[in-house]
Amino acid sequence: MTESVALMTSIADSALTSKLHAVTLEPELPVRPGDITADWLSHVLARKVKTATIDRIMAGTATKVFVTVTFDEERAVPVKLCVKGGFNPDLIQMMPFVVMIYQREVDFYNNVAPLLEHMDLPKSYWAEHSSEQGIIIMEDLEAARHSFGSPSKSWSIPNVLTGIEQLAALHSRTWGVRNADYPWLTSDYDQALLHLMQTYDQVVHSPGRPTIPEYMKDQDRMTAVLKKHYGSRNPRFNCLLHGDSHVSNTYLVNGATRFLDWQMIHIGSAFHDVAYFIGGALDIKTRRRREFDILEYYLRTLEKLGGPCLSLKDEEVMLEYKKSFLAGVGPMMCPYEMQPKDWVFPMAERYAAALHDHNVLQLVEALP
After folding, report:
1. Are residues 174 and 316 in the same domain?
2. Which positions fall inside the CHK kinase-like domain (predicted)?
3. What are phi and psi of 3, to 5 degrees?
4. What is the mean pLDDT of residues 351-361?
5. What count of other Cβ atoms lies within 10 Å of the Cβ of residue 362?
6. For residue 2, what pLDDT band results from cuts at 50, 70 and 90?
7. Residue of 69, 103, 111 lying closest to 86 (CA atoms)
């Protein structure tokens, strides 16, 4: 997704001058797919691996290496694993700050995931990072016959509600979290989006782009609105966010929505995750008809799981929710080099409609 690349760019300056993690003893981690051997897996899994066969490799910001493992045990059956990390040395050499993304997800699985008792996450069997790498060994979701989320068609309300339950589980458990609670977690999301805004005019005015209101095609105005939104977020709603909670970062377990790809976690307003998910999951007509029912369900689930008691009648709640649809500016300006047209079109048009329906630009501009 566009934001993940921008996030890496925005943290480049700090990454090149300091390290996020103080590593006293550097673990020896594989740097290429071929380094993922039976011996290495035996060592990190603390279980003798007889054979390890690489089935396929999925390139991306983080590379996913799918491996079939047979343990050296009587009646052992082959096990499908996904080894995720920075296995493209050329990419890391070109953008050394990309390592921060791998480290961030490792730290999520090691430091945050064990606390989330009401969340259903991909099974992680081992996760570690060094100053130059970050690797997670997890279940192969595709081999487990789970399906993956797509914006190609509108989601059902039950699918959206199970996703909302998962976000409420994350938010309730981390409500009121402070930067000091997670010193390894840098806050670079805002700067990442503002960095992308430098190409906004060029992208939204190019041929073959989705239809969005003309007044949203003004780079200077949109940038100013984003800056004001970032500066006016209500700290009352701070918690740990998934950060990139659109439908393509989900998978479904027996029809229930679950979230994956935890590389953009940060501390911020809970309604960022909520609006970003709702706005992209539902077609425009369904969102207009049901969004406040879904938001009410989120608030009740949040309270049920130990979070605060909030109400749709609270003006601060409604303001924060409406403003948070600005998370959708990322898909609106996503170039086709990053995502295909059949992804960009529904996402951009859905978020633009939500911004228009809630008069978000005017709402933010009217703030003191």
Report:
1. yes
2. 136-308
3. -60, -35
4. 99
5. 10
6. low
7. 103
DSSP code for 86 = -
- In terms of residue numbers, what domain contains 239? 147-365
Could you give the number of structural domains in the chain? 2
Average pLDDT over residues 250-276: 96
Name the DSSP class of 295. H
Q: Which of 50, 37, 213, 69 is nearest to 138 (CA)?
A: 69
CA distance 2 to 244: 10
In this structure, are 258 and 329 located in the same domain? yes
> pTM of the entire structure?
0.90
| 134 & 219 share domain | no
d(CA 281, CA 273): 12
| CATH number for 111 | 3.30.200.20
Alpha carbon distance 232, 325 (integer Å): 14
> Nearest 5 degrees, angle CA 29-CA 32-CA 34?
105
CA angle 31, 37, 42 (to 5 degrees): 115
Question: pLDDT averaged over the chain?
Answer: 92
What residues have CB less than 8 Å from 318, skipping those under 6 apart? 312
